[in-house]
Amino acid sequence: MSFFGYRTSSSRPSQQETHLSEVERLRGRQLASLVRAGGRAKNQEQTLFEVLIADTLRGPFTLRLHLLTDFPVRVPRLKTSFPLQHRWLDVAGNVEGHPDLNMWTAHSDLGRIVTEIVKELRIVASNLAETKLSTSPARHNLQASAALLESRASHASSSRQAHGQHLKPPQRPETSNIRRTQIPVIPATFSELEELTLPQLDKLSADEHTLKSFVSKMTPLVDFTHLRDEVLHSNRVTANTTIGYEIELRELQKVVEARRLKLQAAQQALAVKQARQRRIVARHRPDALLEQLSAAAKNVDNESDEIAMQFAHGDLDVAQFLSAFLPKRNLYHTRTLKLARVLKHYTGQI
């Protein structure tokens, strides 16, 4: 509909299409930059992306990106696959502290930002690589104690076999067992038994009490008993030392918990300030200016259409119509020209 050579509503679709096409072009440019930085799309809509940071013992350490429907007007959401202590990350692994994300605009370079974050977190992940835990001394002592008890039983059994089967050559222990136990080797022969005569051996076999007394005084058994006592003593010392650290560990746990609560409160206060900063920055972004200017032109256009409809229905005379309609149309065209000029300016910069 037109009055006195002025177009009323036909210009609005072209301006909206221009704005949408500009946003789509910016989105495509951001996606291309993200792919060059190593981003891989996780869905067909290309709203979820993932960038590999490093391979760790906990699995792949990745950076996950969620692009909202109005991206790149709104800042994308970045999060790591598992939390890591860094000044850019919060306790949940969300990227909150990167300066370029806090100052995000539709013309920011997402690929460069992702590259900086991946490079920084890769260094941190490599420094926190886990190492294999060494076996504790107490565990070695327990294993040695068990081996000593088994060795003592083997001595008693070997001595009985030597009395009953004197003609049978004794078997030597396997070399693999010697290396595995890491304790004194069980001897193949016992000099104390070889020095005894056959009647003495028969007497030992017949009298269990005499046999036990004789075996308890054998040099190998005495050595094993002494070694067992040393292992038990070492275990007691280790246990007492560990118990002595219990009070200190409890105090340290209280300190850690207090500092954790303090850190949580500080992070919450920081999150509030960062949200306020983003709101302030959003009001002064070029995209926000374009939206405000487009909305103002649309409002004036609607008001002029309403005046024209009133005149068409005979609610206004010519003088009233001209005095109300012409200023509105002049203001509408002024704002439309400004919007077109701003769009052309930003298009030329890109």
Automatic annotation (TrEMBL):
<dbReference type="GO" id="GO:0006612">
    <property type="term" value="P:protein targeting to membrane"/>
</dbReference>
<dbReference type="GO" id="GO:0000813">
    <property type="term" value="C:ESCRT I complex"/>
</dbReference>
<feature type="region of interest" description="Disordered">
    <location>
        <begin position="149"/>
        <end position="180"/>
    </location>
</feature>
<feature type="compositionally biased region" description="Low complexity">
    <location>
        <begin position="149"/>
        <end position="162"/>
    </location>
</feature>
<dbReference type="InterPro" id="IPR009851">
    <property type="entry name" value="Mod_r"/>
</dbReference>
<keyword id="KW-0653">Protein transport</keyword>
<feature type="compositionally biased region" description="Polar residues">
    <location>
        <begin position="7"/>
        <end position="18"/>
    </location>
</feature>
<keyword id="KW-0813">Transport</keyword>
<dbReference type="GO" id="GO:0006623">
    <property type="term" value="P:protein targeting to vacuole"/>
</dbReference>
<keyword id="KW-0967">Endosome</keyword>
<dbReference type="Pfam" id="PF07200">
    <property type="entry name" value="Mod_r"/>
</dbReference>
<feature type="domain" description="VPS37 C-terminal">
    <location>
        <begin position="267"/>
        <end position="350"/>
    </location>
</feature>
<dbReference type="GO" id="GO:0043162">
    <property type="term" value="P:ubiquitin-dependent protein catabolic process via the multivesicular body sorting pathway"/>
</dbReference>
<feature type="coiled-coil region">
    <location>
        <begin position="249"/>
        <end position="310"/>
    </location>
</feature>
<keyword id="KW-0175">Coiled coil</keyword>
<dbReference type="InterPro" id="IPR029012">
    <property type="entry name" value="Helix_hairpin_bin_sf"/>
</dbReference>
<comment type="similarity">
    <text>Belongs to the VPS37 family.</text>
</comment>
<dbReference type="InterPro" id="IPR037202">
    <property type="entry name" value="ESCRT_assembly_dom"/>
</dbReference>
<protein>
    <recommendedName>
        <fullName>VPS37 C-terminal domain-containing protein</fullName>
    </recommendedName>
</protein>
<feature type="region of interest" description="Disordered">
    <location>
        <begin position="1"/>
        <end position="22"/>
    </location>
</feature>
